[in-house]
């Protein structure tokens, strides 16, 4: 027995858990304990230490169990122990299960779980083929004592999670009657076995009622005993929980009729009425497992759910809800609330999956009771619980048969409308004393998290209201009109106003106001869609339209003194678009109302071309104009009938002399007119006659001296933008020794500063105007039924002018970032080129509000404010210029046929390529190249001309920068660190430039991959195997410079996406004979292992533990590559031999095994198994020992031709040999 070893083990464990031991001594003790796991007598030591009779502490006993576990998991089939020794180890574990643990109320849970798991681990390797009496043993354990009964249940919990054991377990869990009914011949005919000479036996013991029936009967008895509240109630409670936990695992997959036969669903429902939280929780888990199942036949579903459909099960479910939530006014404790959420999830899933299932034409007897229950749930003050219930209502309303039942119940639909209307009112209310708010605090960690949820829930409510409206349009509409006539006459009190005197959007009065308008919008839109679709021929549409006109007339007569409420009220006008398209009698009044708000100004407020309005007023004016634009898009043909009137009204508004709008608003009003022109169906010639007078003045501005000064040269750009002026001020202040960034600039310079501001603003507004007018791309026009050629025809004469001016501007901007051009300027002025806090926010994925650059009203100026203003102006100007180029490509041949267009773009964009930083490269790739310049080019010049050269440049740049980053050390190695970077922005605006640069490099790499993703996504599927594959497949830049490197950069997202891309284009690559060597060597090497060169900077994808998360994707790609390419080339074979250090004998054996697999899935599985040994490990897995695979003895298969046996496979046969642990465990 080696007592000295046992003594040292106990001593070492004491040291490890002693708070007084030094780190050195603790490490030495830990190393000793680890070494014992590899000792040949480890199972002997483990068994001795684990037995309760030896009096060891729980820590020592647990370590003893670990020694046994280590033996079973890692050494069971590696030749260390022979069959006799393995049998004795098995008997040792049996003895632990029978008598090795303390009483059920005394033994620690972690000891019980480990003993049960050891038993299950042996069973997984030995049962049923080599352990034929296990079932009898478990039956004896189950009936021996509460202690062993609980252990038996825990063993079955572990076994039930092993999918490979399901056939064998089915034969002892289900009754023999069910097995004979399911498998009359005792054979599973649809066995997944890949060998034709094996069959799966599915027979139970004669007259066996099965474990499931035994558990259910025990559960009923235990519940009765527990309710008696005797001294043994604690034991009964533990056994109830263990039994329900076990049943919950098996009802997920056991034969459906076994569930019906045992009546387990009804018994589980009875447990919901228990007063014990733990019992209720595990009971609802068991019920959820049944409700979540998918059934093969309607008969199976009907049998399983008969207790719910037709019997008392639904009443029990309803009573259990009332037991936990007797009143909606009761605020639940945390435990009860957690249970209720799980309960509601189960109830909703039952209705969604087993009442509203496809093709169901039968209404269950207890369906009214279910509706009563789900309605009660929907009334719950918790928005989270109510959001789950809405899923059933949506499914039921969409269901063709269930919805008919709803239509027959007039009151139900109106009750639901009332319920959802009230829910809209409390969705965004925040009152600390309100139960809804208290539940929000329980469910959500932050207000932003709740806001995301609430917006999604609001969308579901709105959609459901629309669906109900379309079922009962007249009743719903009349109900809504009666309601809002009382609720819309509302005004805010003093407590509802903010510092500017405007209504606060989070005030109770505004929330209620918004909810009522949302309700109205939903019903009006629902009715409008129904009328537009012309469904329901029995509906009196004329009456509904008259009613909608009356409602609209009432709304037009409403006036709200508050600008915030007016803005929300105005948005509701859009809900009447469908009706106005059919009956436009009130259209002009609607437009007048919108125009009235579009030019609204506070009393005494004077408007100038660049006025800055108070924020509420600004929102109202912008909102009104946006609504006009939406009207122009949604009903262009109706508006075209009164276009002259509209245009005259707009021209009067934007007339400079009237001082009604700013220059930016003037642009938006013109956009409204353009939308009507774009989307109307009048002939192109008529469109052109209306279009040119709007666009021509804008184009003329590009040629005006005020603009050409900006794009002639970088010297003039600096001069007219105010950079030279600001430089002179900084130099002057430094010479006088008074320079500070916070210092105010002398008032004598204010007039000049305002002039430069005005010049910058004019350029920005011009570029922004072009973007705004170009935003309606041909694709959008096509959705409205307008040919894209018409859209291009409108712009044809202006595209060249826009292109040349934009390229000139971009060239100047790129030159501005050239460090050499700043030598004569003070260092402080270069601040306009550096990252601002807003830039850093953008890098880490957070959006910060950047105020629009506006002309100052003669206030004070500082150096800091001027630098910040110019920085933002340059950043915006660059982004908008890139956007203009991206939008121009939407014109197709009109754009691409411009003479030398590609050469002009290359020259303008890349003559200062070294001055473009990674942030701007990412912008170029995302805005210009990926979407849409490369994809929309109708000629091959882009893919065969400058594009490969661009790719080579970017690839070289990325390789170099990744090499430098790896040498310096990667900072953002996990998603957690990326999140920390984002969070730090709030508290540390000076976050390290190195970390930000790394994040930008990762973003650029991913944007680079987007190019290829978009290109190959655009390849028609018919080209996947045809002859007309894109010429880019032949391009060396793609082969040698791109894919291989992208697989190796230390960015998991990039690696995964590149691998997926390679898998997608693999058939095309292999189809080309000239590419096969590249695919089988370079590409496979990149995916497999280390580069052969000792100077390699990168470890390859599969062998690199950094890409651990990508390994499944990489292995799948390598599998496809080898299987598809190997019959055509020896390259993958030779690569395997070279990189995996495999000799030809090993590889031949592997390929022989591969060739014997007849199915593609089996071949791929063999390759995956072959590769699993060479995958890299993440750092936390470096010292993890791989689990040994269990011997394939647990499948109930036999060799040869089937003949029905006289003795069942699981029948007990007496073993003539007396085997045990007498010798080994002396």
TrEMBL record:
One GO BP annotation of this record: protein export from nucleus
Residues of the Importin N-terminal domain: 29-99
Any single Gene Ontology cellular-component annotation: RNA nuclear export complex
Stretches assigned to coiled coil: none
Stored Pfam families: Exportin-5, IBN_N, Xpo1
GO MF assignments: nuclear export signal receptor activity; RNA binding; small GTPase binding
InterPro entries: ARM-like (IPR011989), ARM-type_fold (IPR016024), Exportin-1/Importin-b-like (IPR013598), Exportin-5_C (IPR045478), Importin-beta_N (IPR001494), XPO1/5 (IPR045065)
Similarity section: Belongs to the exportin family.
PANTHER family documented for this protein: EXPORTIN 1/5, EXPORTIN-5
Protein name: Armadillo-type protein
Classification of source organism: Eukaryota, Fungi, Fungi incertae sedis, Mucoromycota, Glomeromycotina
